Amino acid sequence: MIRINNIKVPLDFDFTNIIKLASEKTGIPENKIKSAEISKKSVDARKKNDINFIVSLNISAELKYEKRVKNAVYVENFVYRIPKVTVEKRPVIVGFGPAGMFAALVLAIAGAKPIVLERGMDVDNRIRAVEKFRNSGVLDPECNVQFGEGGAGTFSDGKLTTGIKDKRIGWILRKLVEFGAPSDIIYLSKPHIGTDKLRETVKNLRKYVVSLGGEVRFGAKFIGYETENNCISEAVYSDGKGIYRIETDNIILASGHSARGIFEMLYSKNIKLSQKNFAVGLRIEHLKSEIDKAMYGCFAGHDALKAADYKLAVHLPNGRTLYTFCMCPGGYVVAASSEHGRLAVNGMSCYARDAENSNSALLVNIDTSDYKSSHPLAGMYFQRELEEKAYIAGGSDYSAPVILVRDFLNGKITENIGKIKPSYKPKIKFASPDEYLPDFVCESLRLGIREMGKKINGFDNPDAVLTGIESRSSSPVRINRSESLESVSVGRLFPCGEGAGYAGGIISAAVDGMKCAEAVINKIESEKK
To answer: What's the rounded Cα separation, in Å, for the pair 209 and 149?
Structure first.
């Protein structure tokens, strides 16, 4: 099979004519082309008066024809093979976010019949808990935007973009489609599932794991483990009514970046942890229509174009960097708290991305030197302190503190919402970020928003709404592991995914989950020899 890259086609191109396009670009007669499919599709919006799609095609034809094509790249399909194993003690996976889900999927296909412990609830019950919080401000600290089936990604935009290169990614995308995700995630340069479609996708993945003999226990909070000869021998969990033990030789710890109690438990057991950089900031909301116009010009609203996204970063004279993260076109700012008395926000979009506003995190890099402590959990305590201040600034009832860009840049507060209506629920309260963010973060935000306004017309719109606090973009803690992917402190404990400090999004977490599952399989196989 060959790949032809960088083919420009107009927005109104009929993609049912892929064979014809492949013939035109390669010179291979249409009747000699066995198949042609899009391998990559992106929007080229560099010239606002001439926006096009850029596509890559995978083409299969008779070999003699393929060899004649200039500028073609030969590609081979990667086949991901999972060996079959038999186990005496079933492996345990802690957490059912992207890392835990794909670790469970691999182990289930291998025949290892994994047991997943998820402190939150299944998707349907989780939706009810999240909606209750959004509508009433009543938080369930065990089941919320952070905890439950699918992890934090279930209530997000479902972005599948990643900076890593790994052959497993194609397998992950195909599996997601198999379980209900939109088929276009296979080839879009910026694929996303959307929270609405992701919910059904993770449910179907779970059902498949169970059909292979796996088990997912919801409301099961991992609280500890036992060892024998400094290797895992038991997993311990609680369902709120009792404490239970599972004999196991392997634990994959994929608990997510917000499972702070697990970090504290590991520290108490002298597990090697280390500080990690992360970021904090705010969410900025604009009208989707105005972002579309800024990014697409006269093509805004074209039927072939989805809601516009953006990605910005500015390096500031104070030595900090302000960057956008998890941009949600046509989405909502959501309540992402998971602890009583602490406030956090995140962004969420449905697949259609058709809500009135678009929003993005505006984050300032936080270095470990900012923690002012050598304690391995100092970053977590730093997060908690800021979230407590944001909770108080919002009125101590999970109202989010908001401010208009004009007021923030001018150092004042008014209570007049302009044409951009805040999407956060349950409620908002006008308050300055100076009340809950460090001075250097506020300085960086003020400098950076002005600079970003020079890059995207209207980004510094006076009516744009800033909502705090965005503090859960990544884990501030790393659980140290060796080349075997085991904890450097305890054998057969596999720290995994974003919470352990080894991933930064749905896809990279899923890849890491697969790697840890492979490591468990290797351990099982080595014992049989």
So the answer is: 13
* Alpha-carbon gap, residue 173 to 102, rounded angstroms: 11
- The two tokens of residue 274 are 């280390």
CA distance 362 to 79: 39
At 197, which amino acid appears?
K
Judge whether 380 and 263 are in contact, CB under 8 Å.
yes
Q: Please tell me the pTM assigned to this model.
A: 0.96
419 DSSP 8-state letter? S
Burial of 422 (0-12, 13-18, 19+ CB in 10 A): buried
Which residue ranges of the chain lie beneath pLDDT 70? 529
Q: Quote the CA–CA distance of 240 and 82 in Å, as a whole number.
A: 36
Report the alpha-carbon distance of residue 326 to residue 402 in Å, rounded: 19
Instruction: Name the DSSP letter for residue 192.
Output: B
Query: In sequence order, which ranges of 297-401 are alpha helices (DSSP H)?
Result: 378-393
Q: What is the pLDDT of residues 147-181, one digit of tens each?
A: 999 999 999 999 999 999 999 999 999 999 999 99
Residue 447 has φ and ψ, to the nearest 5°, of -65, -45
Q: Which of 86, 130, 96, 135 is nearest to 116 (CA)?
A: 96
Max Cα distance, the chain (Å)? 72
Cα 191 from Cα 225, distance rounded (Å): 38
d(CA 185, CA 174): 9
Six-digit token string for 115 = 């047991």
- Closest to 417 (Cα-Cα) out of 461, 464, 470, 468: 464
CA dihedral 495, 497, 498, 501 (to 10 degrees): 40
CB proximity list for 311: less than 8 A, separation 6 or greater? 324, 327
Residue 253 is which amino acid? L
As to burial, measured by CB atoms within 10 angstroms (0-12 exposed, 13-18 middle, 19+ buried), residue 143 is buried
For the chain, give the number of residues: 529
Q: Among candidates 97, 91, 98, which has minimal Cα distance to 519?
A: 91
Q: What are phi and psi of 170, to 5 degrees?
A: -60, -40
CB within 8 Å of 47: residues ≥ 6 apart = none
Measured CA to CA, the distance from residue 347 to residue 357 in angstroms comes to: 11
Identify the three-state secondary structure at position 6: strand
Q: What is the pLDDT of residue 64?
A: 87
Residues 6+ apart with CB under 8 A from 182: 193, 197, 351
Q: What share of the chain is helix, strand, coil (3-state, %, to 5)?
A: 35, 25, 40
Burial of 498 (0-12, 13-18, 19+ CB in 10 A): buried
What's the burial of 67, exposed, middle or buried (CB within 10 Å: 0-12/13-18/19+)?
A: exposed
* Residue 38: per-residue pLDDT: 96
CA distance 11 to 8: 10
